[in-house]
User: Which sequence fits this backbone?
C-alpha cells in the first residue's frame, strides 16, 4: 500500500497527518492558508519540500475560493498570506524560498498588459 503525503486535485488539498503515523492513517483537509499554517506549525506535515508545497497549495486553494476587486488587491493578498505562512516554521528554508518566488512571480505577472484578476489567479 502506498500512502501519498499530499493529495491535491482540482483545488482540493489533503495532507497525511504525520503525527498519526505509523499506527493510524488520517488525512487532513486544507481549506485555506490558516489550515496550511496550522498543519505546518503543528508538524503534521514534515520535510522541507513538503512544507513548501503545502504552504503554497494552501494559498492556491484559498485563491480559488476568494473574490478580488482588482489585481493590486490580489497581489497584496498573496504577499500577506505568504508572509504569514513563513511564520509557521521560520527556519524552513524551502517555504521561505517558495514564498519569495511566488510573491515575485505574482508581482511580475501583475504588471503584464491587460492582466485580469482571473488571469492572475489561474496563473
Assistant:
Amino acid at each position: 500500500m502506498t500512502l501519498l503525503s499530499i493529495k491535491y486535485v482540482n483545488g482540493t488539498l489533503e495532507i497525511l497527518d504525520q503525527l498519526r503515523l505509523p499506527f493510524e492513517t488520517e488525512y487532513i483537509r486544507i481549506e485555506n492558508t490558516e489550515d496550511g499554517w496550522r498543519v505546518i506549525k503543528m508538524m503534521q506535515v514534515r520535510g522541507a519540500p513538503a512544507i513548501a508545497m503545502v504552504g503554497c497549495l494552501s494559498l492556491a486553494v484559498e485563491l480559488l475560493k476568494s473574490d478580488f476587486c482588482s489585481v493590486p488587491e490580489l497581489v497584496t493578498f498573496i504577499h500577506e498570506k505568504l508572509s504569514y505562512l513563513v511564520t509557521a516554521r521560520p527556519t524552513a528554508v524551502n517555504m521561505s524560498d517558495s514564498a519569495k518566488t511566488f510573491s515575485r512571480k505574482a508581482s511580475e505577472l501583475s504588471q503584464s498588459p491587460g492582466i485580469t484578476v482571473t488571469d492572475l489567479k489561474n496563473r
Summary: The mean pLDDT is 95. The CA atoms of residues 11 and 61 lie 5 Å apart. The chain has five helices and three strands. Residues 6-122 form a domain with the Four Helix Bundle (Hemerythrin (Met), subunit A) fold (CATH 1.20.120.420).
